[in-house]
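Message: I would love a firmer grasp of how sequence relates to backbone shape in proteins. Thank you; the sequence and its tokens follow:
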Amino acid sequence: MKRITTFEKHLDKQYGKKGSARRDKFEVDSISFRLGEMLREERTKAKLT
């Protein structure tokens, strides 16, 4: 039987607890990627890219 875990627990296992250097780097990289994608989408809609 497979156990269901939360995404937060998955991140804890994969990158460490919040506040750890590895987790902080993941969080920063994740936000940077998402902002870049949102910017690209908006530029595409505005026919700037």
About this structure: The longest helix spans residues 21-45.
